[in-house]
Amino acid sequence: MRTYIKDLELKKGEEVIIKGWIDIRRDQGKLIFFDFRDMTGKVQGVVLPGSLAKETAEKTRPEWVVEVKGKVNERPEKNRQADKQNGNIELEILEVTILSQAQEVPFDMDAEINLETHFDYLPFTLRSEKTKDVFKLQATIVEEYRESLRRQNFTEFQAPAMVGGDAEGGAAVFKVEYFDHKAFLATSPQFYKQIMVGAFEKAFTVAKIFRAEKSMTTRHLSELTQMDFEMGFIKDHLDVMAVLENVIRDVVNISVEKHKDIFEKNAVPFPKVGKKFPIFTLLEAQEIIEKEFGGKAVGELDMEPEHERQICEYALREFDCDFVFITHFPTKKRAFYSYADETNPELSKSFDLIFRGLEINSGSQRIHDYNELIAKMKSRGLDEKKFSFYLQAFKYGMPPHGGCSTGLERLTMKMLNLPNVRYASAFPRDMNRIDNLLSE
Amino acid sequence: MRTYIKDLELKKGEEVIIKGWIDIRRDQGKLIFFDFRDMTGKVQGVVLPGSLAKETAEKTRPEWVVEVKGKVNERPEKNRQADKQNGNIELEILEVTILSQAQEVPFDMDAEINLETHFDYLPFTLRSEKTKDVFKLQATIVEEYRESLRRQNFTEFQAPAMVGGDAEGGAAVFKVEYFDHKAFLATSPQFYKQIMVGAFEKAFTVAKIFRAEKSMTTRHLSELTQMDFEMGFIKDHLDVMAVLENVIRDVVNISVEKHKDIFEKNAVPFPKVGKKFPIFTLLEAQEIIEKEFGGKAVGELDMEPEHERQICEYALREFDCDFVFITHFPTKKRAFYSYADETNPELSKSFDLIFRGLEINSGSQRIHDYNELIAKMKSRGLDEKKFSFYLQAFKYGMPPHGGCSTGLERLTMKMLNLPNVRYASAFPRDMNRIDNLLSE
């Protein structure tokens, strides 16, 4: 019967069997020390002189997979490490069975390595505590995103990845050879979640989307995970923002509750959510930036990365909040389905959510009137015939609605202040890399 | 303040505001009757003679989106419909505000229509109760699949959809123009979940996969949702099957608990899970089929669809169970990473799970030894260089492990005995259709 390493401290004085990887081996002549690792943590083991396990133990190396029979001993007072998992016990190794061998590892698992090396050796580097922690946190984020929306009566659906047209005509799109036809990879589940408002009123999806932009910045990926929701019968974009704020608060609270240790190990403060996320129009934000940080901002049609950082700095100082909503982006800069503000149609009922200096979410109220949508498409030079499937939703009666998308990798990245969004994707794809570097 | 339609019976005698779609309008001269629909259900409304709402009410048609102010009246005894939602109340309509108009609907929403028409008008047909029920159930299936695995200590991860090679060389694969390179759409998250065993031991993903088979059967889709898990430190395939059985039992139990009404409306019996899912080797199953149903089965290398139906019929009769495990498929018929049985290497430690006559899951123990895996790839004519990323996981020590994949759409289909798997995909893709029929 296997004992998980996290449960060893409950078994003091007992004989147990653990299974896992050899994390570290230190041969000190008479004594051989090991750190063993399983999915629940690490423990130190020691082969004492004369142990029957000695011969096998001497053969083993890091990353060999073993089954170990041992006795859980309390460490002498002077050897205890109070702040470390299993720091007050040690496994006296009685028997080692080799389950699987490993070749020499390319570098020490916890070594500081550069980004390219990290991804070249991903099946190995994914095993490091630092990397695993990122994806443990990510699993919690996506789980709680869904849970929070379910509590708010949203229904999950599966959005398609392959689409028939380069619908929005904006983002660069990947082409697929689809039998004797051309298809495309979705740049957003937008149309499908709007269609789902007709069925469920409140719908969400966690979907892969694909961006063929020739960009190698620290914030772009070719394939990413988007967490999208869309809801009907809203008054305006503020209703959408309220749901999103609930979701983000839930995600942050649960992440901190479950993974306090991960934030601490990464020396990253818990995300601050303030009493309420501050909301500024783009113009208000720009005025604040000019006043507080100097330079020129008013008149820009979007937020520069530098301005995103500055408005977050301001919000943290004034509102004790790492999140800021920016609303009312110029209508012409947003997607055709964005709803113009009745009081000034040049501006849209749109918003971005910025977290620690990075836009992690974008949303808006949408046009719900069929004729208005057609007129808008024409004014943008879009061919309505190519949108006939999507337009059915509006032809057959669509309530006022809106929604937004959160980038899972960007949110993960900023939670832990990772230097590059690639570190927040388990298997990142970019212009130069799909698993391996692309060569031919 | 909006009242949801499901809560109206708590508001007898009160004035309320509901929002939703006009489901049906019946103009009876003096009286105009409506069925209104929102995300929580339906209710009958009536415009009485002399009502101020009359003029607006007369303009409206099915699928118009409205806000209705009304009074919740108890129906007279003779008009009550005990078995219907809100069958004992009626909304006396006081005011109707039109939120959104609709064009004439193409056909009655609950009409029996053929498959092609259903998908031609999907943004409309998704609104029918019958269709919504399918995707409500599907949302529960996928949620509980995840929940059950989390309770069993699995960690979720996001598997990639774009891959660098046509890895397994088996299933037909879609090509993607990837910047100046070629990429492919994943036919399975197999390699990635195996890599994740190295990190988390127990990992799962719900991933889109893509199959370019030129197949138009009732059980094939070009894009589908696969629910995959993989686990380390197993003894053999039976450990994987035990976890899967737990998951399926949880999914069935929660589905029945939450959606009793959907099974009843569809006149489909609740899936039977017996005391334990019966397990037969392929040979045993074939012998049973020959004995019980006649004909020839022994010697076939896989289960014919007809035989899958027969073994399920047998399992239901003898074990009161709609699920049957079949194990020990010929090694040469399974993927290269399948683990051969030590007692007879011609047969693999593999299994399928058949549900109501259809294979919904396939899995196995996997080869975990690096050298054995290389040898197996060579014997299959696979170029190990193309697998260098994947092979790192094995180079650096991999425990005995195994896993399996469940097709979400197939499981949904069989839960409700739908005649075609397309009905279990919200936005199905096949050779001829991506939303619209493909023309050019």
Task: Write a compact overview of the structure shown.
The first copy, chain A, is of the alpha+beta class.
User: Cα-atom Rg of chain A, whole angstroms?
Assistant: 27 Å
> In angstroms, what separates the terminal alpha carbons of chain A?
50 Å
Q: How large is the count of helical segments of chain A?
A: 11
Shape of chain A from CA axes?
A: elongated
Strand content of chain A: 25-35%
Largest interface: A-B, 92 and 92 residues
- Major β-sheet annotation of chain A: 8 strands, mixed
Class inferred from helices and paired strands of chain A: alpha+beta
Overall mean confidence score, pLDDT of chain A: 96
Number of strands of chain A: 21
Mind explaining what this structure looks like?
Two copies of one chain form a homodimer. The first copy, chain A, has 440 residues and is α+β, with helices and mostly antiparallel strands. In chain A, 30% of the residues lie in helices and 29% in strands. Chain A is built from eleven helices and 21 strands. In chain A, the strands form five sheets. The first copy, chain A, has an eight-stranded mixed sheet with strand order 6-10-11-18-17-16-13-12, with helices on both faces. A five-stranded mixed β-barrel of chain A has the order 1-2-3-5-4. In chain A, helix 4 runs antiparallel to helix 6 (237-265). The radius of gyration of chain A is 27 Å and the shape is elongated. The mean pLDDT of chain A is 96. Chains A and B meet through helix 3, helix 4, strand 6, strand 7 and strand 8 of A and helix 3, helix 4, strand 6, strand 7 and strand 8 of B. Strand 8 (175-178) of chain A pairs antiparallel with strand 8 (175-178) of chain B, so a sheet runs across the interface.
